[in-house]
Amino acid sequence: MDYEQLSMVADKFSWVFAALRLNACGKEAKFCRRARLIPPFRLGLALTATSARQQVETRTDFHRGFHALWGPQVSSEACYKQRATPQCAELARTLSARLMSDMRWKVFGFTTGRACGEFRRILIQDGTACAMHAALREVLPGRFKTVKPAAVALHTAMERLCAAPPTVVLPPDTTSAQAFLPEPTALCASGLLADRGSSDLHSLRRVQEAGGCCIIRAKAGMNPQVVEALREDGKRLRSLRNQPLQPIHTTLPQRQRVALGVRWDGDGCPRCLRLIVSWNRRTKRCCSWLTNLPPTRSPREVICRAYKGRWPGERRCKEWKAYANRHAFDTAKVAMVAGWIGAAIAAAALKRFLAHATPLIAGVAMSTRQAARCVTYVLSDIVQAWKPAQGAGLDDAFMSAVTSLACHARRAHPQRDRHRGRFQLGLEPLFGNNDAAEIREAA
What we know:
The chain is α+β, with helices and mostly antiparallel strands and 443 residues long. It is 42% helix and 16% strand. It has 15 helices and twelve strands. The protein has helices at residues 3-16, 19-28, 40-53, 59-70, 76-83, 86-102, 201-209, 245-248, 300-307, 311-323, 334-362, 368-386, 394-408, 414-419, 434-442, and strands at residues 108-110, 121-131, 151-159, 168-169, 190-194, 213-217, 225-231, 243-244, 258-264, 271-280, 285-291, 427-429. The strands form two sheets. The chain has a ten-stranded mixed beta sheet with strand order 4-3-2-5-6-11-10-9-7-8, sandwiched between helices. A hairpin with a 4-residue loop joins strand 10 (271-280) and strand 11 (285-291). Helix 1 (3-16) crosses helix 13 and helix 11 packs across helix 13. It is globular, with a radius of gyration of 24 Å.
């Protein structure tokens, strides 16, 4: 155990959940102007802990969590009135944003000479949708009018080396994902991995002009001009040159990947990109990726492997739904929906914080999915140790939690991950020992 890292983790938890900070945050949101039985500190800690520890289906579950943490002096009606206000939703949003920004650190690094080691950051753009009460269809319209008339989307750009998103945006589900791409200026010397919903040519050109690189899933209906075609074995397909993509799409080889140099001539400004086409034997369809990475620096097999790095973003969205209570809530009040979602995101950030703290302290590779499930059983001791005397016994509670997570939530096959999993491009976890320092310097 690295006791220096343990003290650092406990101090960061104490700093984020300090009563003075949370109460000041509540006053800024105009949630509380004077001392009450439900101050922002108590409510924020109760919302986060309840969402992280148990399944929340009704507003009464939050009251039970508050009752178990702070006692029976607050009635269910009083708790409901406080939580139904827009100020409470703003408090939950601010708390979740603070946890995402303050309770994260760099947990991965690239070894020298590997394909993606040159990037300063790698961002994974992703999004997911969650159905809401049908009465909210006018405020939060969904894309599927019959099945989900009301839905809210969640768009985030997760930093791969930190394995945590810096920000989360919650617009209606009908809003296009292209509006939430990271600013091109923030992608200088960085890489962007995004799904087909983000493949906007204008945005890609701005990213390229800002000095950033991107790998984006291509849309099926794209029809650029093919400038060059190179098969995986090195043979040039001269018969495919200088033709639109759609007429020749069915003639592309299926046994080997093909790298196409494509060009769009619209708007009087030609845009040249690489299009990697790979045949999927299981689905009997072609998978295509657009990138501006040059072939000399990133061969086609590296592009295909690098795009698999989007899976942590997909998995994080699944964790929010499965283990942090980000699901449909049976209420037609917008303020309560916003407050519940803010509490769910705060709970997910706290779970990821503990999952990332364990490798730094115990020096073992962790499965974030297993950690999200196991944190439910160790979080109560941490909260109870923090509550009475603002941190008395907090180090012991973190020690017990880390020991449990290191035993029950470690990765099953870390060596296999280096050959076929998430570490095959040179990504390595950073531990809190001397070996981790060497990896960090080489990254």
